[in-house]
Structures are given as C-alpha cells and as structure tokens.
C-alpha cells in the first residue's frame, strides 16, 4: 500500500538497555496484524533482533527498521540499541526520524539511557514522547517515575495516560484527554468506570491544562478564565506543543500483555509530526549555499543514506530516508560527495531482516537499495538537476581505541 507523506511517522525508539524497546516494537507489529504471534527477546524470535549475536545476547546491537501499518498510518519504528557500546545505532537512526519515543521501564525508572535518549532528541531538535513500559507490574511506580522525569527532563513532561488498579487488582489506564478509563482483555479495550485516584486526578488534569495553555495565547486566556478545554483543544494544543518542543507527553502500558498500546499508536499519529509538516530540510548546494528541500514528490529527488549493512544475501544494503521526490528502480541518482552517478536497483521495504520489493520509496518514507557502488553512510543521493548535500551524522567518539597488528604475514 502507498502512503502519502502526511500519513507517515518516522520514530526512533530509544532508551536504556532492557527497558522494553524491542518488545514494544514487536507488540505494535503484532497489534497491527503483520505477524501472527508475538516474538520474544528471550527466545530470539522478535522481528527487530535478528542478528545471531543479538539472539545470543538477548539484546539489540544494531538499529533496525520495523514499519507498523495501522488504521491508514505507517509508523516506521527505528528500534535502536540501549547498550552504550552500540550507540552508533541511535546516531544513525536519529538522522532518519522526526521524533523520538523514549522508553522508560516502569520497574527501573529514569535511567541514564532514558536521559541520553532525551538529550539526543533535544540536540537534534526532534519531537519527544515517553512510554512507560511494564506499567502493569506489581512494583512499577508510575507517579514516582513522573517525578523523576520532571527533575531530569524539566517542566515539559506532561502525563496523558496514567495507570490505576481496580479493587480486584486489574490494571486500568486513565486517558486524561477524554477522562475515561479502560481495562484490557487479551488486547481488547473495555471501558470501565473511572477509578478513584483521589486528589491526584485533579492535579493531573490541571498540569495538563497548564502545559496546553502555554502553547497558544487564546488557550492561555481561556485557562486563566477557568474554562475547561474541549478534547479538540487539548489534542491540538498538545500537537503544537510537541512539535515546538514545549511538551513531552507521557503514555504508559504493557507491551507483553497488550495493554494501552492502542492509545499510544493513536497519539503517535495525532501528536507526532509527519515528515511533511516537519517544514523544510536544509541542505547545501555545490557552492555551499543553503537550499531548502520540501517533503513532496513534485521536487527533484534527494535521499539520505543513514545506514549501511553487509547483508549475507543481497550484499551491500543502503538504508535511505527520502527527503524529497521519489526513489525508483533504474533512475540514476548522483552521489553529492563523489559527483558520480549511482545506478539504483529495485527499492526494498525493510521489516527487520525481511526485505520486500517495492515500486518506489516516496518523500518522507524509509526503505533500502542494494548494491550501490560508492554510497556510504551520510551520503546524499540526488537528482542530477539539483545536486545537494545533507549534513553527515555525528557519531559518538569511542572511549577506547585499540590497534591490531599481525605477528606473521
């Protein structure tokens, strides 16, 4: 299925090692109906950890792309390693995303990895959203984590979905936008009566309203006049706040038990920017002059190589984020770094290790092309009519260097 740029979301899924990024990606893929049963990191059966070494270590070592297609929207999830030895994954992935979904474990709270993910989003000026995973576990403390986040990430943190328990211990999730509560039975949402969480509830609504009021002068006036916002105003104010970096919305749920993931996906669509509305991307032409690229198929093609892998079956595989135009088979593109034309083979849609032939990769989307001769990570491939260069990724400096010498020839 072809998606318009406005119906695509490119999201970096980042956070500390073991906080549940890969499991969340897998759960969303399962929820979308793309896989029949949910894989497990422990069994090495997830879509995004497919390298033999990842399966052996039960942890992500490379970034991987998992497109989740749900209700007419395509979410390109870029699952990156949380282990700091493999930080390159996040540095590559951020170049292809407009937003960062920061995973925080409901069990271990705001760890260094979550802070690093937040700083990465800030540094690259990307929209941010937080998902507290494992929120249904006995020892998960959402409100403590919320306080930690406010200390570490600042005042932009804004809760949107909060967990509670029914009298019999059933986990429920309160959506603060609609002020309704839901429980989940084998992934299916069931509305329940709003549980009493005491004075906290009013405080949460107040905090959210205040964050939204700060995104717009008219809303600010309404807020000080003591008028409640409509659900539309809340969502629109939230979207604007997320885009401008004024709000970091916080959601929660359980990936393993398929709880509250529908609310997460719905809000990833509603609140996170699409490539189209991300505005213009700045590149430079051959003379070093700035050029604005727009996310539309009408413009000459420009695609950015954000990751290169040696695939055992197809050889060299270059992952592309198309910034403008469309990448199609047989249409040569010029490599802005070398000035040489690159012959483009069949574009591929990548789902973890699976590669599916596609008709083309449109502006705003992510895909891959095999066997490019000179293309390296950080290169821009473009139409000969408009040769432009996008900034290369900045990789973290290694903290340990080693040299290898041979004892005998």
How would you sum up this structure, described in words?
With 409 residues, this protein is an alpha+beta fold. The chain is built from nine helices and 23 strands. The protein has helices spanning 21-31, 52-57, 88-93, 112-123, 142-153, 199-213, 217-224, 231-243, 261-271; strands at 8-15, 64-70, 73-79, 99-105, 127-133, 157-159, 161-165, 171-175, 180-185, 188-192, 248-252, 281-284, 290-293, 302-311, 315-324, 326-327, 333-335, 341-342, 348-351, 354-357, 361-362, 366-370, 380-382. The strands form six sheets. Strands 2-3-1-4-5-11-6 form a seven-stranded mixed sheet, with helices on both faces. The protein has a six-stranded antiparallel sheet with strand order 18-17-23-14-15-22, with no helix packed on it. It has a four-stranded antiparallel sheet with strand order 7-8-9-10, with no helix packed on it. α4 links the parallel β4 and β5 (127-133). α6 (199-213) packs antiparallel against α7 and α6 packs across α8. The model has no long low-confidence stretch (mean pLDDT 85).
| Largest beta-sheet characterization | 7 strands, mixed
Shape: globular
Task: Report the uncertain regions.
Answer: none
* Helical coverage, percent range: 10-25%
User: How large, in whole angstroms, is the Cα Rg?
Assistant: 22 Å
Strand content: 25-35%
- Tell me the total number of β-strands: 23
Mean pLDDT score, rounded? 85
Structural class call reads alpha+beta
Q: How do the helices and strands line up, and which of them pair or pack?
A:
Blueprint: E1 8-15, H1 21-31, H2 52-57, E2 64-70, E3 73-79, H3 88-93, E4 99-105, H4 112-123, E5 127-133, H5 142-153, E6 157-159, E7 161-165, E8 171-175, E9 180-185, E10 188-192, H6 199-213, H7 217-224, H8 231-243, E11 248-252, H9 261-271, E12 281-284, E13 290-293, E14 302-311, E15 315-324, E16 326-327, E17 333-335, E18 341-342, E19 348-351, E20 354-357, E21 361-362, E22 366-370, E23 380-382
Parallel strand pairs: 1-3, 1-4, 4-5, 5-11, 6-11
Antiparallel strand pairs: 2-3, 7-8, 8-9, 9-10, 12-13, 14-15, 14-23, 15-22, 16-21, 17-18, 17-23, 19-20
